[in-house]
Specification:
mainly alpha; 3-stranded antiparallel β-sheet; two-stranded antiparallel sheet; 5 strands; 8% strand
Length: 200
């Protein structure tokens, strides 16, 4: 079985990579420039600028490599969607999940326990990496169900997921993309208003 990166995984990567439409170097010693959502390489030149649309396309192209990489472990682990998304985000940042999985010899539980350990750069713990690993572990450990976005949106309307920040937090903790669910909620409300308007 092969999986694709979901919007939950893509948005997780976006939230930590940030987006720059202008080329930059994280450190002067780096060989190449970075642009968009962490896109780095010889195709990025000094003073280069791109559109938001181009940044999105570069991100999708860059993710393909890591999607294929994590899919290489599917026969061994059969990762659910949340586990898969978390590991693609991890690989996007670290480069691979080979060491994390010990080349496929660790159990799912062991992988989960190891994720937070990858929070150092040059031997120094970075708060940004600590936060990213915690989010990835949370998503990895979140049970995945096959409810559609519409099903979740209906539950939101019924009050199951709370309101405001509470709703946003609960949905994120359950592995759902808040913006996608909220969009569906708004859509269902419009349909309901239209139906009510047509009923005399």
């Amino acid at each position: 079985m092969r999986r694709k990166l979901s919007m939950t995984g893509l948005n997780l990567i976006k939230s930590f990579e940030g987006c720059s439409l202008h080329a930059y170097k994280c450190t002067p010693s780096e060989r190449f420039y970075t642009i968009g959502y962490g896109h780095y390489g010889s195709d990025v030149s000094k003073n280069m600028t791109i559109s938001q649309e181009k940044a999105e396309k570069l991100l999708e192209q860059d993710c393909e490599k890591f999607v294929s990489h994590v899919n290489g472990y599917m026969n061994k682990y059969n990762f659910n969607q949340n586990q898969f998304d978390a590991l693609v985000s991890f690989a996007y940042n670290i480069g691979s999940i080979n060491q994390l999985t010990k080349n496929g010899t660790r159990s799912i539980k062991e992988i989960s326990l190891k994720i937070p350990e990858y929070c150092k750069s040059n031997g120094k713990i970075l708060n940004g990496l600590v936060a990213r690993r915690n989010r990835e572990k949370l998503l990895f450990d979140t049970p995945y169900n096959n409810k559609s976005v519409t099903d979740i949106a209906k539950e939101v309307i019924s009050g199951k997921w709370g309101n405001g920040e509470e709703r946003k937090r609960k949905l994120a903790n359950a592995g759902y993309d808040y913006a996608t669910v909220q969009k569906e909620v708004n859509k269902l409300f419009k349909v309901k208003e239209w139906e009510n308007g047509c009923i005399k």
